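P.,

For your records, the input lines for the assembly:
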Amino acid sequence: MAVMFLVVAAILAALVATVRILRGPTHADRIVALDIFLAAAIALAVAASLGTGRTVFLDVAIGLALVGFVATIGWARLLERSPRVRQRGRR
Amino acid sequence: MMGGVGGVLVLGGAIALVIAAWGVLILPDALSRQHAATKAGTLALASICLGVALLAGDSQWTWRLLLIVIFLLTTLPVAAHLLARAAVREAGLERLIEAAPRIDLDPEETRP
Amino acid sequence: MVVRTLLVLFLVVRFLRAVVVSGWQTLRVILRSRRRRPTMALVRVGFAPMSETGAALLGCMVSLTPGTTTIDIDMGRRELLLHVLDASDTRPLLKVIRRDFEPALVRLFGRAREA
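Structure tokens returned:
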């Protein structure tokens, strides 16, 4: 029960975030949506380990948490250093 | 008992995750959306992890889940801060920031 | 030494509580935003003199207080630049920051370098 619910919620969240990635007027919006993607991925990994009863998937979730954080920082840095594109960011 | 509380935490976390994603979709600008993704998303994940730890009730699971929560909580403020800065820079809000009003509190207001 | 450990523990507990409260409030703002658009604001707040480490920690904790995110820390002017998600009640938020986090941080990292 809990596993099904988690999986459905994570997929729903990922779908909603996809809409924001496609639509997002600025790159910052897309990175934020990527954060939600990361959260959904971790939730899926936890759900997988709960469903199978094996802890390997929790290790996957730990790795995801670390790598996702580094990815967010990397994207943010890249965005901060990239040359300014005037008036494109505005809606 | 433990299983019941764990189940409630997992369900609540799952719902919170969907609400966080919803917030990323409907809040008006990147700075506000970043609030939704980092704060609400992290709370949702922490709730899910704690709930699963209670459901499993096994130390093999507990320390791994605690590790996930600790990673998320320590990295959350840094990610939020960097995202906010990137969003400000990209949207070209620097002038707004220069003009931001300074709010000071009276000394007696800050006393515990 | 004991005092420092206690202070750190105290800060950790405050931090955890702030995580839960801020997550909850953000969820509520999201759910309400259909009816009432959250009005955001940018605000500068002065903070007590402390070392750079202390200021960085304060910034991190501010990111977790309900409804605020640190955008920048201005060491020269000793100001935090905050983004407030729901600007209808800014002053109580700032009160929470200065009352809950600042005193302990000042005692841990206080006045290392007076500008």
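Two observations worth noting. Strands of chain B lie at 102-103. Chain B touches chain C at residues 16, 19-20, 22-23, 26-29, 31-32, 34-36, 38-40, 42-44, 46, 73, 76-78, 80-81, 84-85, 88, 93, 96-97, 100-105, 109-112 (CB under 8 Å).

Regards
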